[in-house]
Amino acid sequence: MGAGGRRPGGGRTALVRLNRIALANFRQHADTRIDFDAGLTGIIGPNGSGKTTILEALAWAIYGNTAARGTRESIRFNRAAPRATVRVELDFEMAGHRYRVVRGLTNAELYLDGAATPIANSISGVTEILTRKLGMTRDEFFNTYFTGQKDLSVMAAMKPTERGQFLSHVLGYERLRDAQKLARLHLTELRSQITGIQQGMPDAEQVAKQLDDARRRLASTLRAAQAAREVRTRAQAAFERVRPRWELVQRERDALQALLAELRGAEGEEAGLARDAERLARELGGIASAKAEREALAVFQEAQLGRDTVQHAAASGDAVRRRGGGGDPQPVADRQGPAGARPRRFSNRLSGDRRHRAGGGVAFPRAATRCGCRGFRTRTGELKSNFST
What pLDDT band is residue 68 in, cutting at 50, 70 and 90? Predict the structure, then answer.
């Protein structure tokens, strides 16, 4: 395998240099080793000596059992023991690396750059790596770089046309022709599709007219956008001019809202104080009534005591006069004098207390609360007047 070439699939094969191949119990070779020097290497021998077997062993080392003729047991050297080891070791260089593959009937190993540990140690793993590194399949290898001896003798007896067909078959040119047929078919389909697309497309003049209309609409839209930007710039400038006053109005509005909230709180407090004042007025009225009744009762008790004293004194005087032979006794009602007027003074005093309560003597809490809220209403009115202007 010399310089790399282009394989039928279109890819570039790797440049491979063979270093050594060793065969053990492989077909006619019980123990054979060949070292390849630089340049061409020729292998000469009689028919059946195993020249083609060396090429077969090279392919078998790379691609495995599919590259060998016959069965696995037919590969073993016919004079070898039944369980003798069949082994092919191939050493070659490719893409700056050195590979050593060792393959047997049931095992395979691949070493890289003289390492002691293989990078692959299974039959399928070794075959997959080498196929990928070489860039060609087994069929491509046999159709390009490997040609059997019988195929060459048959080709010598062929006519030029037959020889060309044979070489096309060996080199895989049939696949190139199949690929050309597929390419022509695909080209025909593409041309049909292009023709259909062209037929479905509108007239070129109509497309040009639509393009001109679109350009005019675009120009109009751009002018409208520019005008809108100018309007926006003017509006922004006007806003910047009125911004200080607007911010002032916002602050005054916030202050007004705060005062209104405070006023509502004061009004609520005023209503609560008014209710407390009414309750206290009722309590004071009850207290005053109880006090007046208590005073009236005391006056009445005092008058009753005075009357009893007068009556007792009158009775005592009458008894003395009777014992002394005095004149007629004075009526008790006439002797009461000022003491008899005490019930009337008590009644007049009680009436005066009632008039004092009826005249609003206990209404001072409401008046005081109303005076306290007058300042909030005055400030709120001023802020409302400023906000409206």
Answer: confident
